[in-house]
From TrEMBL:
<keyword id="KW-0732">Signal</keyword>
<feature type="domain" description="Lipid/polyisoprenoid-binding YceI-like">
    <location>
        <begin position="29"/>
        <end position="189"/>
    </location>
</feature>
<dbReference type="InterPro" id="IPR036761">
    <property type="entry name" value="TTHA0802/YceI-like_sf"/>
</dbReference>
<protein>
    <submittedName>
        <fullName>YceI family protein</fullName>
    </submittedName>
</protein>
<dbReference type="Pfam" id="PF04264">
    <property type="entry name" value="YceI"/>
</dbReference>
<dbReference type="InterPro" id="IPR007372">
    <property type="entry name" value="Lipid/polyisoprenoid-bd_YceI"/>
</dbReference>
<feature type="signal peptide">
    <location>
        <begin position="1"/>
        <end position="27"/>
    </location>
</feature>
Length: 190
C-alpha cells in the first residue's frame, strides 16, 4: 500500500514531468506560418532570369537555439502548385519532360546535419528529392527572430539536369540554363 505523502509526491513528479515535456516540445517544434513563408525558384530562359514560386508546401522544423547542431528540418513541396509568370506554362512544366507531377507530385528535403556558423548562420546539409532523384545538398541558412516568430532564409543552387528536369530536347541548356536557385523564407511560430 502506498502512503498518502508518497502518492502526492508521485503525482507531483508526474505533473512536473508532463509539464516539462510539453514545454520542451513547444520550444523545439515550430509551426509554419504559411501566409509569411515563401518558396521561389529562379532560372534563366535564353539568358533572361525568370522567377516562379510554389504556392503549397509544408515544413517541419525542430530548432534548438542553444544547440543548433541538434536541429532538423523536413520540407515537402507540392509541385502541382507551381506558379510561373506566364500562367500558360504552369501546365507545361508539370508534364513528363519537366516535373512529371503525375508520377512525382512532391519534392522533398530532409536535413542530415546543421553546423552552427555563429551570428544566426547555419550550414545545412541534407537530401533533396525531385522527380524520384535524390541528391546530397549543402547550403547556408540565416535564422532571425521576428517578434515571437523565427524566420529561416536561404538559397539553394541546384542543377536541374541532375534531377532529370528537362528531358529530351529540353536537356539543351542554351534555351533553359542548367542552374536553378531555390530561394526560400520559412517563417514559424512556436
Amino acid at each position: 500500500m502506498i502512503s498518502r505523502p508518497l502518492k502526492k509526491i508521485s503525482a507531483s513528479v508526474l505533473a512536473i514531468t508532463a509539464l516539462c515535456s510539453s514545454t520542451l516540445l513547444l520550444a523545439a517544434n515550430l509551426n509554419l506560418d504559411a501566409g509569411k513563408s515563401t518558396v521561389h525558384f529562379v532560372f534563366k530562359q535564353m539568358e533572361v532570369p525568370v522567377q516562379a514560386r510554389f504556392k503549397k508546401f509544408q515544413a517541419q522544423i525542430d530548432y534548438n537555439a542553444a544547440k543548433p547542431e541538434l536541429s532538423s528540418a523536413k520540407v515537402e513541396i507540392d509541385l502541382n502548385s507551381v506558379d510561373l509568370p506566364a500562367p500558360e506554362y504552369n501546365q507545361e512544366v508539370l508534364k513528363k519532360e519537366w516535373f512529371n507531377a503525375v508520377q512525382f507530385a512532391k519534392a522533398n528535403f530532409v536535413s542530415t546535419s546543421m553546423k552552427n556558423l555563429g551570428a544566426g548562420k547555419l550550414e545545412v546539409s541534407g537530401n533533396l528529392t525531385i522527380k524520384g532523384k535524390t541528391q546530397a545538398v549543402r547550403f547556408p541558412l540565416q535564422v532571425k527572430s521576428e517578434g515571437k516568430a523565427l524566420s529561416f532564409e536561404g538559397n539553394l543552387p541546384i542543377k536541374r539536369l541532375q534531377f532529370n528536369i528537362g528531358e529530351g530536347e529540353w536537356k539543351d541548356t542554351s534555351m533553359v540554363a542548367d542552374e536553378v536557385i531555390i530561394k526560400f523564407k520559412v517563417v514559424t511560430n512556436p
